[in-house]
Automatic annotation (TrEMBL), chain A:
Gene: ETR1
A GO term from the CC aspect: mitochondrion
Molecular function in Gene Ontology: quinone reductase (NADPH) activity
Annotated organism of origin: Scheffersomyces stipitis (strain ATCC 58785 / CBS 6054 / NBRC 10063 / NRRL Y-11545)
Name of the protein in its database record: Mitochondrial 2-enoyl thioester reductase
Xref: SUPFAM superfamilies: GroES-like (SSF50129), NAD(P)-binding Rossmann-fold domains (SSF51735)
UniProt record, GO biological process: fatty acid metabolic process
Keywords: Mitochondrion, NADP, Oxidoreductase, Transit peptide
Subcellular location: Mitochondrion
InterPro entries assigned: GroES-like_sf (IPR011032), Mito_Enoyl-ACP_Reductase (IPR051034), NAD(P)-bd_dom_sf (IPR036291)
Automatic annotation (TrEMBL), chain B:
Gene: ETR2
BP terms from Gene Ontology: fatty acid biosynthetic process
Organism encoding this protein: Scheffersomyces stipitis (strain ATCC 58785 / CBS 6054 / NBRC 10063 / NRRL Y-11545)
Protein name as it appears in the record: enoyl-[acyl-carrier-protein] reductase
Predominant cellular place of this UniProt entry's protein: mitochondrion
GO cellular component: mitochondrion
Length: 364, 366
């Protein structure tokens, strides 16, 4: 029986999402499956800020999967988990396997996918679980491709010799972002302490939530920008042996980022990632020279393109942590997709609601 | 007995207020087996020397009473050229007549003489020795007295961080007309790297451009061109012709100018900021930073060479070799000879030199 499928597609970049994004219906006929093909059914896929900015035309991720090679449609989305429902004879995966795409650009906003394993890219997917393995939830599986790998690589790529004596610190802005919540959990596993900065006016519950994700200290932006932060608050917090070795910036530029760099100890790194709004980073040259502060950038997509195996290794490490209960997934807003709904409308709504938190679409 | 003089300070402040001349005796009949006595041939005034005296530089000499001052005092100056005039019985690295520079910063080079242990100095060939070795030229006093900071900074920034492919790759620098900038132009030419030097627009731009091209600059552009989007394709074409990339940017200006040179970098490029006491913040747009994976780091020669004797000696030998082979032209200093016993005390020479530093690098010769 052929499968009626649909996807959220676009042909041009633009900000008028209800018009730029289209519903594209397509049919997959399992009876005609080639030996190197497989049929994937979406279990759940997510909306990330980078997906949206890709459609705006900001993030240029080369998209690889067209529904129809004659009609170069882009399928939106980069994160999501699929279940194998049909396999060709040469495909090593089994029905019931749970897969994620190894590279960005797969186009995950679709109910089904017909994938072809090409000779020049024999491993486009990573198997992360299966129907008979209940150690990973669908929520965890659907959100394992972007935020948790970003957090793990941010912690490991720049500082390579974290001390496990509790004296090493990370300071980060956007403390209540999903990446930040993974950073605090993963740092805790190394006995590295964390300072998470949040906007003023957060409730006690919101701050308590960050502490539950193992943030050592949560500070409001006003506390962080206070005149005596560098001379008093910070030294008192980290103690005489404490070192702030990594500062993570995902909000852009301005005074708060300069302060982040100024919070670093000798030889520290200011790493900027995931900034979408633009802005400029302004660094006092004296700290670059005399404190040997390096300003670096991080982009998961670039790392994965340069070295796809790094993504596989990172995901494997995270799967282990999930299985052992060492980390937990961060909150998300669950949307149930029904087979007869228009997928374009579901995603346009989800994108609008993204400002309230991460949106994940679950399929029946 | 040698009567020595040194410029010292006991309190930080402006050089015009806090410097004084301390006169003391060195007993040349009683030197220890591992000691040497040196006399000064020349020592310059660097911005970092002034910042040390002001107390705003992160590396500075301890204040001691070693020279016999009544209150703890610190000596001034970090660069200088010296001649060995007496050696202790166990000294193996030096003989009388050799030239030498201090092995470490904070030695105190604004002085007429010094008593030191041999490990406190590094030997340089004097002109007779260079001649005997068949070299086309020997070091001048200016070359020896200014060898430790600017030429070494230029060489290390070009070679220590990024591997530029000779004949293909490029670096871009602002402050192209500065002393370090001119050394970087010459050294990149010697190493086969292409360069783009950004200079301030000025009435005699053509003159400056020919001067820098005479030193080996591949391209010279103005700050306005550095900041202009329209000029971008011109630079892209230059780089395309050599089949290389702009992998390195050297920044000593900051502000928009740092953004401009960073923008020219290829993916994964590095911007090194040096000499940063008095200029504007380093500014990087986040989009450039993230999507081109640009890294911005500081270069401070004092920290880099502090624990790397081998790198320091290797670099020093390279610069000496280029000077001896007349392949490298030194940045000229404005020289003032010190007259012992004259109307002006030693510290007054340096106080005037500090004031005159605005006109160019000042060197006091002895």
């Amino acid at each position: 029986m052929s499968i009626q499928a649909q996807a959220v597609t676009f042909t041009d970049f633009g900000k008028d999402l209800p018009n730029v994004l289209k519903q594209t219906k397509f049919v997959i006929d399992p009876a005609n499956l080639k030996s190197n093909q497989l049929v994937l059914k979406a279990l759940a896929n997510s909306v990330n800020p980078s997906d949206i900015h890709e459609i705006f035309g900001g993030y240029r991720i080369p998209r690889t999967q067209y529904l129809n090679p004659d009609e170069p449609l882009y399928v939106g989305g980069n994160e999501g988990v699929f279940r194998v429902v049909e396999v060709g004879s040469d495909v090593k995966f089994k029905k019931g396997d749970w897969l994620i795409a190894k590279l960005p650009g797969f186009g995950t906003w679709r109910s089904y996918a017909l994938a072809t394993i090409e000779a020049d890219d024999p491993e486009p997917f990573i198997k992360i679980s299966s129907d008979d393995d209940d150690s990973l939830s669908v929520e965890q599986a659907a959100t394992i491709s972007i935020n948790p790998p970003t957090a793990l690589q941010l912690l490991n790529q720049f500082v390579k010799d974290w001390a496990d004596d509790g004296n090493d610190w990370v300071i980060q802005n956007a403390g209540n972002s999903s990446v930040s919540k993974f950073v605090t959990q993963l740092a805790k596993l190394k006995n590295v302490k964390t300072i998470s900065i949040v906007r003023d006016g957060k409730s006690d519950e919101e701050i308590k939530e960050l502490q539950d994700f193992h943030a050592t200290k949560v500070l409001t932006e006003s506390e962080f920008l206070a005149e005596d932060f560098l001379s008093k608050t910070l030294p008192a917090l980290i103690g005489p042996k404490g070192k702030v070795r990594l500062a993570l910036n995902s909000i852009g530029g301005g005074e708060a980022v300069t302060q982040l760099a100024n919070s670093l100890s000798h030889d520290g790194f200011l790493v900027t990632f995931g900034v979408i709004g633009g802005g400029q980073i302004s660094i006092d040259p004296r700290i670059q020279l005399f404190k040997n502060i390096t300003t670096a950038a991080y982009w998961l997509t670039a790392n994965t393109k340069k070295n796809p195996q790094s993504k596989v290794d990172t995901v494997q490490t995270l799967l282990e942590y999930y299985k052992q209960g060492k980390i937990v997934d961060t909150p998300l807003n669950k949307i149930q997709f029904k087979e007869n709904e228009n997928i374009q409308k579901v995603f346009v709504n989800a994108i609008v609601n993204s400002k309230d938190g991460k949106q994940v679409i679950f399929y029946e | 007995m040698i009567t020595a003089q040194a410029v010292v300070y006991s309190e930080h402040g402006e050089p015009k207020d806090v410097l004084r001349t301390h006169t003391y005796e060195i007993d040349d009949d009683k030197i220890a087996a591992n000691q040497i006595i040196v006399k000064t041939l020349g020592s310059p005034v660097n911005p970092s020397d002034i910042n040390q005296i002001q107390g705003v530089y992160p590396s500075k000499p301890d204040k001691t009473t070693e020279l016999g001052t009544s209150e703890p005092s610190a000596p001034c100056g970090n660069e200088g050229l010296f001649e060995i005039i007496k050696v202790g019985s166990n000294v193996s690295n030096f003989k009388v007549g050799d030239w030498a520079v201090p092995s470490n910063v904070n030695f105190g080079t604004w002085r007429t003489h010094a008593l030191a242990t041999e490990d406190q100095f590094t030997r340089l060939p004097n002109p007779e020795q260079s001649k005997a070795a068949g070299k086309p030229s020997g070091l001048t006093i200016n070359q020896g007295a200014t060898i430790l900071v600017n030429p070494m900074t230029a060489y290390l920034m070009l070679t220590h961080y990024v591997q530029l492919i000779p004949g293909k790759d490029w670096f871009i620098q602002n402050g192209g007309n500065s002393a370090v900038g001119k050394y970087a132009i010459q050294i990149s030419k010697l190493l086969g790297f292409n360069s783009i030097s950004v200079v301030r627009d000025r009435p005699n731009l053509n003159e400056l451009e020919s001067e820098l091209k005479g030193l080996g600059a591949t391209q010279v552009i103005t700050e306005e061109q550095n900041g202009s989007r329209e000029f971008g394709p011109t630079i892209k074409n230059w780089v395309k012709e050599t089949g290389g990339e702009i992998k390195l940017a050297l920044n000593c200006v900051g502000g928009k100018n740092s953004t401009g040179v960073a923008r020219k970098l290829a993916n994964n490029g590095l911007m090194l900021t040096y000499g940063g006491m008095s200029f504007q913040p380093v500014i990087l747009p986040t989009s450039l930073h993230i999507f081109k994976n640009i890294t911005s780091a500081g270069f401070w020669i004092t920290a880099l060479l502090k624990n790397d004797e081998e790198l320091k000696n290797k670099t020093l030998s390279k610069i000496v070799e280029w000077y001896e082979n007349e392949q490298l032209v030194d940045a000229k200093s404005l020289e003032t000879p010190f007259v012992a016993g004259g109307a002006k005390q030693l510290h007054e020479y340096y106080q005037e030199a500090v004031v005159n530093s605005a006109k160019g690098k000042q060197l006091i010769t002895y």
